[in-house]
Amino acid sequence: MNLVSLFSGGKDSTYSIYKAKQERHQIQCLITILPLSDESKLLHFPNIEITKLQSKSMGIPQLYIKSESNETEIEESLLEEVLKKAKSEYGVDGMVHGGILSEFQKNIFEKACSKLNLKLISPLWHKDQIDYMKNLIESGFHFIITSVSSDGLDETWLGKEINLEDLSKLEQLGKKYGFNVNFEGGEAETLVVDCPLFSQPLKI
């Protein structure tokens, strides 16, 4: 299937591309929407500009647009508009995204895809937190933490590339402070600096 990826540059959207390609799907283009601010409930805000470098390293063309509003309805309309463009210009049959738990986001994506007769692919949906993070690291994904917003995660985690030892620490902290180890609840934001999809790593 020819797919477009909803791409933010973080670990989840990047790994979802990797999993889709493993399942023999072809990623024809990326969609990246820059929200008006970090108050968007639907879209990813941090480090979005860097996705242009990641797109180049993956050799996948990118449809990059900016939203003029944080209102979900307007962002949803913008997503439909750019999906329509991806379908007409790249002949995509579906969209892959990196959602794990958010029914809110998934329902909106399904609605947008349904209007255009596109299939929504969700390779990470309801994956076990620890198993997912281990698979991510063991598959050669190098990602750093770019922001933290949860009790138990202090500034020492900023800029840190997460390895299996760090994951063990995160698991302990997650149990103590009650946060998601995969950061699905927004406890931290990540940026992929290298992975098997990249022709060359990012230098941050």
Automatic annotation (TrEMBL):
Where along the sequence do coiled-coil regions lie? none
The GO molecular function terms of this record are:
diphthine-ammonia ligase activity
| One GO term (biological process) | protein histidyl modification to diphthamide
Q: Record's Pfam families?
A: Diphthami_syn_2 (PF01902)
Q: Diphthamide synthase domain: which residues? A: 1-204
**InterPro entries referenced in this protein's UniProt entry, alphabetically:** Diphthami_syn_dom, DPH6/MJ0570, MJ0570_ATP-bd, Rossmann-like_a/b/a_fold
Protein's name in the database: Diphthamide synthase domain-containing protein
